[in-house]
Design brief:
single chain, alpha/beta, Rossmann fold, Isoleucyl-tRNA Synthetase, Domain 1, 2 domains, 6-stranded parallel sheet, 4-stranded antiparallel sheet, 19 helices, elongated
Length: about 475
């Protein structure tokens, strides 16, 4: 048994939850549940990022108090726990008092190391990214990530972090092939470091931006949102003195799950902060791809945004988990549409595991005199565990569905409904074998479809046909 820590990134609370973050949190949840089923002690964290200029501007546009504004959106993200049946242990908010104290403490440690200094700075600033940009970063004079926003020139005195001090040691950290998955993201990180690291601003003048964590010892500055937010990965564990920090971070295995646009922040900036504060680096960061719809990036203006709550309303919680974990590629970008989702749901849930469960339990209910004993399960197959260990969520589910397909074919080929009429005992033995395999499939589904897994196993052991496992659309 191992102590394991897993965390998502913190979504920025200036909009409702979107399907891309639902993918990320479900990938983390699947791993957390799988590890627990294997006997590991797991701490799974998520939360919300609530400071910064974008948040303040959005609240002001709506004429709302900024704390009230972030409270509303934090609640919307918190609802995902029940809506997606998540197993996270913690939900950290960057406006939490404990988090603010931790962010100020890591600042003090980096400052004591000599890695924080103050200087006047003039540069191009993108509010969308909450970051300064170089001329070479611009595309047609605009930020490539926010082409509809104006880039503004700002001159002010800020604190800077000596990122340049960590070039060699970050390259050493990235030599470990396990530091980043997939491999090409690790190469991307190495290339970024080799191109040279520039010190970056980690504060803003309070006069211009009041919504942030106060800089220790300077009432006129607040922390830059990234320096504050990245600290959540350890503040959620009670750093610096919490028992959970010692157990899960220092003595455990740590994994961060993030989107592919986060490499610079999660695997370079945050790791440099940890090095500066003399804290162990993250063992591994896994980067997933993006979800597009109908060949386009999801956008409100195009009208192709898919909400996780819409998926849940149409298909149900377990089906939403299935659709995102099996039919969205773990690391490449994927395209989903409502037509594709309907097709996958019908073929693999309604006509797949749903129909198979109904067939077998109806046979058992009709022809067995009593339920079977709880089957003795063999160790979890390596085809499944190896896929999950390598973040191939789709392949892990492909394996389970190969077992579903094989069992379905076996029933079609053996025709037990005919055998029971001529040789009842032989027919009953076949039905018992089907039930045992169905139970084993139910067990394998435990981390992905937790509710359906329990329903299937309960139906087998009670010898009853469950009602509407996956209803037809």
């Amino acid at each position: 048994m191992a102590n394991k820590y897993i965390t998502t990134t913190l979504p920025y609370v200036n909009a409702d939850p979107h399907v891309g973050f639902a993918l990320e949190i479900l990938q983390a949840d699947l791993l957390a549940r799988h590890w627990r089923l294997q006997g590991d002690d797991v701490f799974f964290s998520t939360g919300t990022d609530e400071h910064g200029q974008k948040i303040l501007q959005k609240a002001e546009e709506k004429g709302e108090d900024v704390q009230k504004y972030v409270d509303h959106y934090a609640a919307e993200f918190k609802k995902l726990k029940e809506a997606l049946n998540l197993s996270n242990n913690a939900f950290v908010r960057t406006t939490d008092e404990d988090h603010i104290k931790a962010a100020q403490e890591i600042w003090k440690r980096c400052e004591a190391k000599g890695d924080i200094y103050k200087k006047k700075y003039k540069g191009l600033y993108c509010v969308g990214d909450e970051a300064f940009l170089k001329e070479s970063d611009l595309v047609d004079g605009k930020c490539p990530n926010h082409p509809t926003m104006e880039v503004t020139e700002i001159e002010e005195e800020n604190y800077f972090f000596k990122f340049s001090n960590y070039q060699d040691v970050l390259l050493k950290y990235l030599e470990n092939e396990n530091a980043i998955v997939p491999e090409w993201r690790r190469k991307e990180a190495i290339e970024f470091v080799k191109n040279g690291l520039e010190d970056f601003s980690i504060s803003r003048e309070k006069e211009r931006l009041s919504w942030g964590v106060p800089v220790p010892g300077d009432d006129e500055q607040v922390m830059y949102v990234w320096f504050d937010a990245l600290t959540n990965y350890i503040s959620t564990l009670g750093w610096p003195d919490g028992e959970n920090f010692k157990k899960y971070w220092e003595e455990g295995e740590t994994l961060q799950v993030a989107g592919k646009d986060q490499v610079r922040f999660q695997s370079l900036i945050f790791q440099a902060m940890l090095l500066s504060a003399d804290i162990k680096n993250t063992d591994k960061v896994f980067y997933h791809g993006f979800i597009n719809s109908g060949g386009h990036k999801m956008s409100k203006s195009i009208g192709n945004v898919i909400s996780p709550y819409e998926l849940i309303e149409k298909y149900g919680t377990d089906a939403t988990r299935y659709l995102l974990l099996r039919h969205v590629h773990p690391v490449d970008d994927s395209d989903i549409t409502w037509e594709k989702l309907d097709e996958w749901y019908t073929a693999n849930l309604a006509n797949g595991i749903g129909n198979l469960t109904a067939r077998i339990t109806k046979l058992a209910e009709t022809h067995l005199e009593s339920p079977i004993e709880t089957p003795e399960l063999t160790p979890t197959p390596s085809e499944y565990t190896d896929a999950l260990d390598n973040f191939k969520f789709n392949e892990a589910l492909d394996y389970i569905w190969s077992r579903i397909g094989a069992l379905d074919k076996r029933i079609t080929d053996e025709e037990p409904f005919k055998i029971v009429k001529t040789d009842l005992e032989k027919g009953r033995e076949l039905i018992k074998e089907y039930l045992e395999e169905l139970y084993a499939i139910g067990e394998l589904l435990g981390a992905t479809l937790p509710e359906s897994s329990e329903l299937i196993k309960k139906a087998v052991l009670e010898n009853t046909k469950p009602e509407g496992l996956f209803a037809r659309l």
